[in-house]
Specification:
Radius of gyration: 22 Å
Strand order of the largest sheet: 3-2-1-4-5-6-7-8
CATH architecture of the largest domain: Orthogonal Bundle
Order of helices and strands: EHEHHEEHEHEEHEHHHHHHHHHHH
Structural class: alpha/beta
CATH topology of the largest domain: N-(1-d-carboxylethyl)-l-norvaline Dehydrogenase, domain 2
Number of domains: 2
Shape: globular
Bound molecules: nicotinamide-adenine-dinucleotide
Length: 385
């Protein structure tokens, strides 16, 4: 099957590589010639590195490069069975791309969007045949991150969903199916990892280095929240938080923080700007954490129970199955354990008590426990069998 990719930026070029590695002929389109050139050069570099490391033969690398064809119009998409869009995150632009795309593809072609935060229903509604539109959300970097969230819109036909899932499974990705709601699974459930860490810092309970140390050493997370925000970029991370919060009709649970907003406004974007929560300039000395086990455990528990609460609430609202929610967090953001399984192991009553204690102390909606946690605790049930 031939694959079309629209947008040759960070995500589009990665997705093109993934498809070509699975043997597809790929048509990579971008309105910006420079983006196509950059993507071609970057791919050549990646291929050379993989050959050097012995992970790919010279012939395979050559084949992958040859299968990706850069194009500057939609004409080449006529034989594609699947076209995925990965352009700028703007609903109006995406809708206009989808509506004109339909004139250039066959009747059986599936149209997918890699959007992180926009409504698939709204993108699909711009098409004559909205039933063939689906969300296919890769994670960055697409060739390395195993997770792909598949998002059927209300209009998506069930066979389109099945075909899409089969195709992406065939690309050796871990797929989960999620409802078309803000943040899908990962960008919704992960909010407290950042938000509650910032809140703990704002309250002066611990500094950033200590919170990062606790989450890694005690919590078992691969990166601490502040390190990770610096890695993602405070502009991107803040915008995702703000988008999710707005899209949930300003549910206070997702409220962004002034701390991160100010970081963004100051241009302290993280690694990419040389300074974020930490200083990345040459010779900068990293702050030392205060390795207090009791404080560390309290920090981890507070962030963890908020994450578990989000996972429980996503399950309660049928955003995805319990298995898919756990898979999404382990394969999309490398959590050491699925949150629902983790809650089962810790004890749901204990998680609920922790949240109720916070709610009682703060009287803030961000600590309101999901009714599913309360039900599971009341009946002594677990999330996973
Ligand atoms: N970067 C991430 O971490 C990430 C992760 C998952 C999903 N996404 C989503 O993927 C999409 C792309 O993000 P990105 O980070 O790759 O962006 P990017 O800025 O790196 O690349 C976007 C590319 O789209 C091109 N483009 C813009 N308008 C176009 C049009 N009308 N037609 C064709 N090409 C056009 C641009 O020239 C650019 O090369 C967004 O919807 C984003 O939300 C991003």
């Amino acid at each position: 099957m031939e694959i079309g990719v629209i947008g040759a930026g960070t995500m589009g070029s990665g997705i093109a590589q993934v498809a070509a590695q699975s043997g597809h002929k790929v048509w990579l389109f971008d309105t910006n010639e420079a983006a196509l050139e950059k993507a071609t050069k970057a791919l050549a570099k990646i291929m050379a590195r993989l050959v050097e490391k012995g992970r790919l033969s010279e012939a395979d690398a050559q084949g992958i490069k040859e299968r990706i064809n850069c194009v500057s119009d939609y004409q080449s998409f006529q034989n594609c069975g699947f076209v995925i869009e990965a352009i700028v995150e703007n609903l109006d632009v995406k809708r206009s791309v989808f509506s004109s795309l339909e004139d250039h593809v066959s009747d059986t072609c599936i149209l997918a969007s890699n959007t992180s935060s926009l409504s698939i229903a709204s993108i699909a509604a711009s098409c004559q045949r909205p039933e063939r539109v689906v969300g296919v959300h890769f994670f960055n970097p697409a060739p390395l991150m195993p997770l792909v969230e598949i998002v059927p819109a209300v209009q998506t036909a069930s066979d389109i969903l099945d075909q899409t899932k089969n195709l992406i499974d065939g690309w050796k990705k871990v797929t989960v199916v999620t409802k078309d709601t803000p943040g899908f699974i990962v960008n919704r459930v992960a909010r407290p990892f950042y938000g509650e860490a910032i809140r703990i810092y704002e309250e002066g309970i611990a500094d950033m280095a200590t919170i990062d140390w606790a989450m890694k050493e005690i919590g078992g997370f691969r990166m601490g929240p502040f390190e990770l925000m610096d890695y993602i970029g405070n502009d991107i991370n803040y915008t995702v938080t703000e988008t999710v919060w707005t899209a949930f009709y300003y549910d206070p649970r997702y409220k962004p923080s002034f701390t991160q907003k100010r970081m963004m406004e100051a241009g302290y974007l993280g690694r990419k700007s040389g300074r974020g929560y930490y200083d990345y300039k040459e010779g900068a000395v990293a702050p030392e954490p205060e390795k207090n086990q009791v404080v560390g455990e309290a920090i981890v528990w507070r962030i963890l129970i908020l994450l578990m609460n989000e996972a429980a609430d996503a399950l309660h609202l049928n955003i995805a199955s319990a298995q898919d929610i756990d898979l999404a967090m382990t394969k999309g953001v490398n959590y050491p354990k699925g949150l629902l399984q983790w809650a089962d192991e810790e004890g749901i009553q204990k998680v609920l008590d922790g949240l109720d204690k916070l709610y009682l102390a703060y009287h803030e909606e961000r600590y309101r426990a999901s009714v599913l946690l309360r039900q599971k605790a009341a009946f002594g049930q677990k999330f996973l069998g």
